[in-house]
Amino acid sequence: MVDHYLDPDCGYCQAQAHPEEKHVGDFGYLVGELPNSVVVIFNEQSHPGRVIVANKKHVSEMVDLTDEERNAYFAEVNQVAKALHKLFNPDKINYGAYGDGGSHLHFHLVPKYEGQAEWGKPFAMNPGVTHLAGDEAYEKMAADLRAELGI
């Protein structure tokens, strides 16, 4: 049961309200929920394994969370990062939280591979390259992540 405000115009909030819907807005595919966050595969997979970890509460800033909520959220970001390391074996994971394009606190976790796209540079938000074709491929990645995350 959801015990916090869900914005009807927010993809991350609607993923919590309607978890049976696998598509999150026009940008992602739902992996599932952890106690304090929602995990979403970013549609654009120029960096294999790229996901978003959104806080369950519809807040725009970390300062809007209590210390306990923030620590629990970052523990889950770390849990997802460990799963990505195990499943995708990246050389590095970049973390991005910009927030001026959307008002719901979330982090992009972007596995990076030495010698491949954008190594040593910030990742692009939407370079228009997609490496997964269709829901079947997204569901396979989501199932692997669910198994690794225990959700």
From TrEMBL:
Domain HIT: 11-119
Protein name: HIT family protein
Motif annotated as Histidine triad motif, chain positions: 104-108
Gene Ontology molecular function terms on file: catalytic activity
SUPFAM superfamilies attached to this UniProt entry: HIT-like
Gene3D superfamilies, per database record: HIT-like
Phylogenetic classification of the source organism: Bacteria, Bacillati, Bacillota, Bacilli, Lactobacillales
Classification via Pfam families: HIT (PF01230)
Superkingdom of origin organism: Bacteria
PROSITE patterns listed in its UniProt record: HIT_2
